[in-house]
Design a protein that fits this description.
CATH class: Mainly Alpha
Low-confidence stretches: none
Radius of gyration: 16 Å
Largest sheet: none
Order of helices and strands: HHHHH
Strand content: under 5%
CATH architecture: Up-down Bundle
CATH superfamily: nmb1532 protein domain like
Helix content: over 70%
CATH topology: Four Helix Bundle (Hemerythrin (Met), subunit A)
C-alpha cells in the first residue's frame, strides 16, 4: 500500500467523523462532545503524521513543493482553530451548528485538494522513491502519536 492509499483512507475516516458531528442534533450534547473529542484526536494524529512523513519529505525531495506544503500547513492550522472554537461553544448553541458545518466543509475542501492535484503531482515526483516506505512511516508515526497521547492523558 502506498502513502496515497493510506492518506485517502484516513481522509475518508476523518470526513465521516466530521459529517457525524455536523449532522448530530443539537439536543445530543454528550454525543456532540464525544464526536468532537474523537475528531480532534483523530485529526491531530493524522495531521502531525502527514506533515512529518509526507509533506516534510516531499519538500526535501523537491523544493518546488514549498508553497504547496505551506498552504497545507495553513489549512491544517485553520481546521485546528475551528475545532478549538467548537470546544468552547455549548453544543446546543446554533453557533456550534455553524462552526461544525464550517469545519466539515473545510476538511472536505482540504482533502479534495490533497487527493486531486497535490497527490497527482507528488506521485510523479515520488515515482523513484518508495511510496510504500512512506506509508509505513506514516502508520508508524500515527500509531506512536496515538499511544503517546493515551499514555500522557492517563498520567
Amino acid at each position: 500500500m502506498q502513502i496515497f492509499d493510506v492518506l485517502i483512507d484516513e481522509h475518508s475516516r476523518i470526513e465521516r467523523l466530521a459529517h457525524r458531528l455536523e449532522a448530530a442534533p443539537p439536543e445530543a450534547i454528550a454525543m456532540r462532545r464525544e464526536l468532537l473529542d474523537n475528531l480532534r484526536e483523530t485529526w491531530t494524529h493524522h495531521a502531525r503524521a502527514e506533515e512529518k512523513t509526507f509533506y516534510d519529505p516531499l519538500r526535501t525531495i523537491d523544493g518546488s513543493f514549498d508553497e504547496v506544503v505551506l498552504e497545507a500547513y495553513a489549512n491544517h492550522n485553520a481546521i485546528e482553530a475551528l475545532m478549538r472554537e467548537l470546544e468552547i461553544l455549548n453544543p446546543a448553541d446554533s453557533r456550534f451548528d455553524a462552526k461544525a458545518r464550517a469545519l466539515y466543509y473545510a476538511m472536505v475542501r482540504h482533502f479534495e485538494e490533497e487527493e486531486s492535484w497535490i497527490f497527482d503531482a507528488a506521485k510523479r515526483r515520488l515515482a523513484a522513491s518508495d511510496p510504500e516506505h512512506w506509508a509505513e512511516n506514516y502508520l508508524s508515526d500515527y500509531l506512536s502519536s496515538a499511544v503517546s497521547n493515551k499514555s500522557s492523558s492517563s498520567l
